[in-house]
Write a structure and sequence with these properties.
By secondary structure, the protein is mostly helical. The chain contains 2 helices and no strands. α1 packs antiparallel against α2. It starts with a helix and ends with a helix.
């Protein structure tokens, strides 16, 4: 009988330990699941923002290429104008002086 009673007490103590163990794991499980949800949400937000950024970048490609083309054309014209000015062309000299004056005026306004 004492054996039965000791076994019952031992079984009761083990059940109490299991319940206590389960209860002590509950806050950990809740914290872990909350972190999982949080990081999942943040990951989805980052992917959405990345897609938006890619869309904005691709929409700016055409204007960027057009401005690069215009800049290259302007450089070519200025090179030819500079060559003409060096050869003594009066109109080319006036154009270069006008550009230098306008650049100087812009830099003074910026200060």
């Amino acid at each position: 009988m004492e054996n039965d009673q000791t076994q019952a007490e031992t079984a009761g103590a083990q059940e109490a330990e299991v319940k206590a163990s389960r209860q002590s794991n509950l806050p950990f499980a809740i914290t872990l699941s909350a972190l999982l949800v949080y990081f999942g949400f943040q990951t989805l937000q980052l992917f959405a923002q990345r897609n938006e950024l890619s869309a904005v970048k691709s929409s700016q490609e055409a204007p960027l290429q057009a401005s690069q083309k215009l800049q290259d054309q302007f450089k070519a014209v200025m090179t030819k104008t500079s060559e003409l000015a060096k050869q003594g062309h009066i109109g080319a000299k006036m154009v270069l002086e006008g550009l230098q004056n306008s650049i100087g005026a812009e830099s003074k306004q910026g200060q």
